[in-house]
Amino acid sequence: MKLSARYWFIIENVIFHRFRLGCNMIQCKDCEYCEFGPDGKRRLKCDPFTNIKEPECIAKWQLIRLDMLLASYQGMLKWYGKLAPLQDKLFKFMEREINEIDEADSWKTDDTEFGEDEDQDI
């Protein structure tokens, strides 16, 4: 699982403040469930339901999930940005088609000629 640098900064700050308050908490880099990949990024193999070592690990997992949710939302926004011009073209085409259909059927409901004749007959 990959985390962005800003979330690692938040996690490390939480750890630093806990240490400053006198709480000894292991850091992710010292945990047996943390591995470093060949690219130097941390990969967490801990599972919040089975093998959590510290209560703060749950907070870290919440940050991880929030980061993943944010990344998927940003990806969705990119796709919506790519689809927006196509959607605009589709709406213009449908509007033009509907207007052409209305113009083609306007002879069926054209009451201007008949309405004037009926008023003159009375």
Describe this structure in words.
With 122 residues, the protein is mainly alpha-helical. It has a domain at 5-79. Helix content is 61%, strand content 5%. It is built from 3 helices and 2 strands; from the N terminus they run H-E-E-H-H. The chain has helices at residues 5-20, 56-104, 112-121, and strands at 34-36, 42-44. Strands 1-2 form a two-stranded antiparallel sheet. A hairpin with a 5-residue loop joins strand 1 (34-36) and strand 2 (42-44). The chain is rod-shaped and about 90 Å long.
Secondary structure: elements and pairs:
Layout: H1 5-20, E1 34-36, E2 42-44, H2 56-104, H3 112-121
Quick recap:
The protein is mainly alpha-helical and 122 residues long. The chain is built from three helices and two strands; from the N terminus they run αββαα.
Bulk shape: rod-shaped
Strand order of the largest sheet: 1-2
Helix segment count?
3
Question: Largest sheet, if any?
Answer: 2 strands, antiparallel
* Proportion in β-strands: under 5%
The structural class is: mainly alpha
Radius of gyration: 32 Å
Q: Uncertain spans, ≥5 residues at pLDDT below 50? A: none
Number-wise, the strands total 2
Question: How helical, in percent, are the residues?
Answer: 55-70%
Mean of residue pLDDT values: 78
N-to-C series of helices and strands: HEEHH
